[in-house]
Amino acid sequence: YVRFHLISPLIQQSAENIVLFDTFVNILSHNLGEPAYEADVAQLEYKLVAGEYGLIIRVKGFNHKLPLLFQLIIDYLSDFSFTPAVFEMITEQLKKTYYNILIKPETLAKDVRLLILEHGRWSMIDKYQTLMKGLSIDALSAFVAAFKAQLFVEGLVQGNFTS
């Protein structure tokens, strides 16, 4: 079991940064779909989560091939690229996701409660409005470069691994 949290102070600076981060993580997951398929067949699991303060990478499975899967994810992260078509597809999916959160009373109430309790939190309404105004491909590219330049890493490795 390998878990790394790539923390960046950049994410919480604005609602636009949060939306750009969500877009980035979704595109990265989309890009990994085909190359990581063989790992899935070999009973290796991975998950990319857009956490509140950074990207969480979770990988688990048999230890002899786990480093290869983790390296694949890191390679795709470091050489991040996307096409305009994928960008449009992911932003449309995010619009639907944000909208679906807003129309459910229980999730909207939770979001409003957390907005009141947490300092510096951006509401789902702010994120949805930012996304509806439109994001640019250049803004995403600039955000990803800045994100990779301002990273702090926390990691945990459990299992049959040598130090």
UniProtKB/TrEMBL annotation:
<dbReference type="InterPro" id="IPR032632">
    <property type="entry name" value="Peptidase_M16_M"/>
</dbReference>
<dbReference type="InterPro" id="IPR011249">
    <property type="entry name" value="Metalloenz_LuxS/M16"/>
</dbReference>
<protein>
    <submittedName>
        <fullName>NRDC protein</fullName>
    </submittedName>
</protein>
<keyword id="KW-0479">Metal-binding</keyword>
<feature type="domain" description="Peptidase M16 middle/third">
    <location>
        <begin position="1"/>
        <end position="129"/>
    </location>
</feature>
<dbReference type="GO" id="GO:0046872">
    <property type="term" value="F:metal ion binding"/>
</dbReference>
<dbReference type="InterPro" id="IPR050626">
    <property type="entry name" value="Peptidase_M16"/>
</dbReference>
<dbReference type="Pfam" id="PF16187">
    <property type="entry name" value="Peptidase_M16_M"/>
</dbReference>
